[in-house]
UniProtKB/TrEMBL annotation:
Entries under HAMAP family matching the protein: Glu_racemase
Family listed: Belongs to the aspartate/glutamate racemases family.
Assigned keywords, A-Z: Cell shape, Cell wall biogenesis/degradation, Isomerase, Peptidoglycan synthesis
Protein name: Glutamate racemase
PROSITE patterns: ASP_GLU_RACEMASE_1, ASP_GLU_RACEMASE_2
Main function: Provides the (R)-glutamate required for cell wall biosynthesis.
Gene designation: racE
Active site feature: 72, 183
Gene3D superfamilies: 3.40.50.1860
E.C. no: 5.1.1.3
Top-level taxon: Bacteria
Record pathway: Cell wall biogenesis; peptidoglycan biosynthesis
A GO MF term: glutamate racemase activity
Length: 268
């Protein structure tokens, strides 16, 4: 049996990473878990997010994955180190890949970061950027109103556009040339965010670079999938599977064939 890449998030946000993993590594099978019953993680304490992440990893590890991708910035900030110590397969977060991609993109060294309250308060992006380059100026802003819009599947309505615009009030006049979408839900809102920030600001999602890191690690370990069979991915969520499937369909298209299976978090 082919070992899978396990990907987790507080909800549908990690699908932005899953899509890129499926694109860059089309032979690999993905097992995805979205904790839609307990989303959003952003306003929760880091201790609670760590416990939830650990619970989900215990669930996913039963499938014997070859790597775990924590496709959630909030969970990466709260739990990456802990989970890496706990399991003996590679664990990949989204913050360092996002920071690397932003440093590649910036010309001025002035980088904005938007994310959940948990991610921004953790200071994890500032630390990751400064670890790579001490010359970077970082401007951060929490945008707690955005994740609920995405979980409701509302990416383009007038309400969404005005909420995005209000959420970016503190960021849109900052002298940045690069903006890190420091929450994996935000690429769903790429278009309204781009409209507010304007064409001179590059929007960076962690997805490409996280998928590249996954690819590199599997290559280094000799664990890349072989063979020509098209993998059948598996999806789990803890909340409403109809809403999850509809959002996943709109984002992944053909890659989601089966109805997602509900795992009640109490069962995890
Ligand atoms: N998608 C997650 C992130 O990247 C978390 C969103 C949330 O649940 O608040 O931070
Ligand atoms: Ca480990």
């Amino acid at each position: 049996m082919q070992q899978a890449i396990a990907i987790l998030d507080s909800g549908v946000g990690g699908l932005t990473v899953a899509k890129e993993v499926m694109r860059q590594l089309p032979r690999e099978k993905v097992i995805y878990f979205g904790d839609t019953a307990r989303t959003p993680y952003g306003p929760r304490s880091s201790e609670e997010v760590k416990q939830f992440t650990e619970q989900i990893v215990d669930f996913l590890i039963q499938f014997d994955p070859k790597v775990i991708v924590i496709a959630c910035n909030t969970a990466t900030a709260a739990a990456l180190d802990h989970i890496s110590q706990k399991v003996d397969i590679p664990v990949i977060g989204v913050i360092h890949p996002g920071a690397r991609a932003a440093i590649t993109a910036t010309k001025t060294g002035n980088i904005g970061v938007i994310g959940t309250i948990g991610t921004i308060n953790s200071g994890a992006y500032t630390a990751a950027l400064k670890q790579l380059s001490p010359y970077i100026n970082v401007m951060s802003q929490a945008c707690p109103a955005l994740v609920p819009l995405v979980e409701q599947g509302d990416f383009r309505s007038e309400h969404t556009r005005s909420t995005v615009s209000e959420s970016l009030n503190g960021m849109k006049d900052k002298p940045i040339d690069t903006l890190i979408l420091g929450c994996t839900h935000y690429p769903f809102l790429m278009e309204p965010i781009g409209q507010v920030m304007g064409p001179h600001v590059k929007l960076i999602s962690s997805a490409d670079e996280t998928a590249r890191e996954t690819s590199t690690i599997l290559y280094d370990k000799g664990k890349l999938a072989i063979g020509d069979e098209t993998p059948v991915h598996q999806f789990f969520c803890s909340g409403d599977p109809v809403m999850f499937q509809s959002i996943a369909r709109s984002w992944l298209g053909e890659q989601i064939r089966n109805t997602p299976v509900v795992w009640h978090v109490s069962k995890l």
